[in-house]
């Protein structure tokens, strides 16, 4: 496609969020004729970037004739296939790509570490980036977290990109090929985007390795049955590096007792799990994945150990907010599906008041039922429609109450808590009924705790 850039290749960008703006800037820089179209309003800061760079755009509508003139359409990950405009683009046979595909096209000789999975992506991506920075590599943190991949390539290219990749971004790749691919786990999420077929979602996640070559690495969770079953159907000619908490791995990583062991080439890294900055069992898996990725980048084991020991956890992901009169408050607002909440509850070792609720994506609460019965003394619902939560846990938890704001939820939780308890915001739902996004939900929760 690069050779087409000379004859004003027409690129239409659908959606003017972070990834859309990044794609527009990168396209323009490489001689494409770019038009940006957003069905809603474009944020002022993004609009300014488009105007400053002389990029044509529209907001509040999609002008069909302009869009259907495109040689290629970059579709933002938030726009589903069932969108009417997308259907028309497909019907006309115009190629649709994702922003990571465009970034890949112009990345030059840089390497990519790409991380996907249903849970733990942001944490693992951030940890790999932290290890790379500790080792003084010329790298950037891109993708679903931080900066748009395309924008980074356009404005400040690096030798290495550590990219958090969602299944939506993988849906529209063509040649995208990471040197190191990491697949953490696959659990049922976003099924509304995959015709409610788990198999479609699994296939989407596995696209991260579809273009890999013999010298590339695939780091994956050997304890995940879904991943293991899918691997048995594939014939791969790439370097497989599994990690496990259940079995010793010859090439990859495992935890035995309280020791993590990573062995890739001759160099071996071993360290105690008690030295990990990230606590909780699921984070041991995330830390192994990050450690393997760092080893394949030839980062010295001392640097890997240092970085794993001094990493600071992400905001809104199992974040300790405060302890008020003996009650600990934890912000896990980033838990937007039931599996994330399962991981959070699994790491609780005190009686827990659990704040649940929001926009339900077809949740199956039976997945957390055993942990809730074992650890939760009260559920505080925080959403506009809490009926499904009541149905799922009625008679299994002594107290279930409804609230409709972060402030109410925190006040009620504090009333229900005794000294030595923990209040855990881990909603298992999206946040759009009461908040702009999970970050705003987490921030309001933290502010309410500080006001107690």
Automatic annotation (TrEMBL):
Entry-linked PANTHER family: UDP-N-ACETYLMURAMOYLALANINE--D-GLUTAMATE LIGASE (PTHR43692:SF1)
Keyword field contains Cell cycle: yes
Domain Mur ligase C-terminal, chain residue ranges per copy: 316-429
UniProt protein name: UDP-N-acetylmuramoylalanine--D-glutamate ligase
EC number: 6.3.2.9
Top class in the EC scheme: ligase
Keywords from the named record: ATP-binding, Cell cycle, Cell division, Cell shape, Cell wall biogenesis/degradation, Cytoplasm, Ligase, Nucleotide-binding, Peptidoglycan synthesis
Pfam families per record: Mur_ligase_C (PF02875), Mur_ligase_M (PF08245), MurD_N (PF21377)
Gene3D superfamilies to which the protein is assigned, alphabetical: Mur ligase, C-terminal domain, Mur-like, catalytic domain, NAD(P)-binding Rossmann-like Domain
Name of encoding gene: murD
The Mur ligase central domain, residue ranges: 115-293
Similarity comment: family membership: Belongs to the MurCDEF family.
Keyword Ligase among UniProt keywords: yes
